[in-house]
């Protein structure tokens, strides 16, 4: 891919980002992903991030997206700061239990014992 192709691709991703993110919110994608990493049911084992978009791909396929659409969505997520499944919840989702639990744990570790 030469520089012009890269610019065209970046421009394309930027142009579709608001619509893609809106669709993901409407389809509850972020909630479905969060359910995998921070299940509300304590009997379910949380998924560990494999530093890939494997879980994202499974969820998007379950939402009836084809491979081309999935690749576009992942390009958008990457442009928003996600390099893997857990970073979707940390950097792209407006809210997530995974992110909230992380910061709660950090706060407990930093709070002096009384």
Structure, described:
The chain has one domain (3-110). By secondary structure, the chain is mainly alpha-helical. The model has no long low-confidence stretch (mean pLDDT 91). It is built from six helices and no strands. The chain has helices at residues 3-26, 29-37, 54-62, 67-79, 85-92, 97-110. The protein starts with a helix and ends with a helix.
Quick summary:
By secondary structure, this protein is mainly alpha-helical.
Structural class: mainly alpha
Largest sheet: none
Termini separation: 58 Å
Task: Give the overall average pLDDT.
Answer: 91
Would you list the SSEs in sequence order as H and E? HHHHHH
The geometry reads as globular
Count of structural domains: 1
Tally of strands: 0
The number of helical segments is: 6
Oligomeric state of shown chains: single chain
List keywords for this structure.
114 residues; mainly alpha; 6 helices; globular
Helix-strand blueprint:
Elements: H1 3-26, H2 29-37, H3 54-62, H4 67-79, H5 85-92, H6 97-110
Helix pairs in contact: 1-4, 2-3, 2-5
């Amino acid at each position: 891919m030469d520089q012009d192709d890269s610019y065209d691709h970046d421009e394309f991703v930027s142009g579709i980002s608001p619509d893609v993110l809106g669709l993901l919110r409407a389809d509850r994608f972020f909630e479905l992903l969060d359910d995998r990493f921070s299940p509300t049911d304590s009997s379910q084992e949380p998924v560990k991030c494999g530093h890939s978009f494997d879980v994202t791909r499974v969820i998007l396929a379950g939402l009836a997206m084809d491979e081309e659409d999935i690749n576009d969505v992942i390009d958008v997520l990457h442009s928003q700061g996600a390099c893997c499944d857990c970073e979707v919840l940390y950097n792209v989702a407006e809210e997530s239990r995974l992110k909230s639990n992380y910061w709660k744990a950090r706060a407990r570790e930093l709070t002096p014992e009384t």
